[in-house]
C-alpha cells in the first residue's frame, strides 16, 4: 500500500480541518472575535468561582455568540447565508455586550469583596473596551456599506413621490 504523502495526496482531514484559516486569524475581525471569546470565557470562570455567580449567564452567552460568529466568519457562512444582515447583527451583539459587561463589572467590583469577583470585574472592563472597539469598527463598516448601497442606485430613477414633489415647484 502506498503512503498518501509520497503519492502527493493531501493528508486525511483531522483536527486541523476544524481550525480556522490563518488569514482569518491574522485579520482584525478574527483577532477581535478571538479576544472576545477568550475574555468572555475567563470572565465566566471568574464568576463561577465568585460570590457574584448570578452574573455568570451574560459572559456565557457572549462567549457562545462570539465563538459562533468566529467560526461563522472563518468558514464564510456570512457569504453563504445572505438572508441575515451579518454586520448589523454583529454590531447589535457588540453594543449590548459592551453595555452589559460595563454594568455587571461595576456591580461586581463595588458590591462583592472576594477576589474572583474583583478579577471578573477587571476582565469585564477589558472586555468592555474590546467590544467597544469591535462595535466602532463594525459601525464604520456598516456606514460604508450603507453609503455604497445608496450610491449604487441610478440617479435618474425617481419615485412617484419625488416626481409629484418636483412638479409642484
From TrEMBL:
Q: How does this protein sit in the membrane? A: Multi-pass membrane protein
Question: According to its record, what are the GO cellular component terms?
Answer: membrane
Coarsely, its chief localization is membrane
Q: What is the protein's name according to its record?
A: CKLF3 protein
Q: Write out the entry's keywords from A to Z.
A: Membrane, Transmembrane, Transmembrane helix
* Organism (species): Certhia brachydactyla
Task: Read off the InterPro entries from this record.
Answer: Marvel, MARVEL-CKLF_proteins
Q: Which residues cross the membrane?
A: 32-50, 56-74, 86-108, 120-139
Amino acid at each position: 500500500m502506498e503512503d498518501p504523502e509520497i503519492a502527493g495526496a493531501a493528508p486525511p482531514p483531522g483536527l486541523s480541518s476544524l481550525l480556522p484559516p490563518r488569514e482569518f486569524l491574522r485579520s482584525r475581525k478574527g483577532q477581535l472575535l478571538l479576544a472576545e471569546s477568550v475574555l468572555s470565557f475567563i470572565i465566566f470562570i471568574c464568576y463561577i468561582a465568585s460570590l457574584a455567580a448570578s452574573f455568570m449567564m451574560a459572559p456565557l452567552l457572549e462567549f457562545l455568540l462570539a465563538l459562533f460568529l468566529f467560526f461563522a466568519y472563518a468558514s464564510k457562512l456570512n457569504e453563504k447565508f445572505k438572508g441575515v444582515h451579518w454586520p448589523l447583527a454583529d454590531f447589535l451583539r457588540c453594543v449590548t455586550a459592551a453595555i452589559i459587561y460595563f454594568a455587571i463589572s461595576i456591580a461586581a467590583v463595588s458590591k462583592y469583596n472576594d477576589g474572583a469577583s474583583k478579577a471578573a470585574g477587571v476582565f469585564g472592563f477589558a472586555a468592555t473596551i474590546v467590544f467597544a472597539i469591535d462595535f466602532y469598527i463594525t459601525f464604520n463598516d456598516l456606514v460604508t456599506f450603507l453609503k455604497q448601497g445608496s450610491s449604487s442606485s441610478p440617479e435618474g430613477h425617481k419615485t412617484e413621490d419625488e416626481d409629484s414633489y418636483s412638479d409642484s415647484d
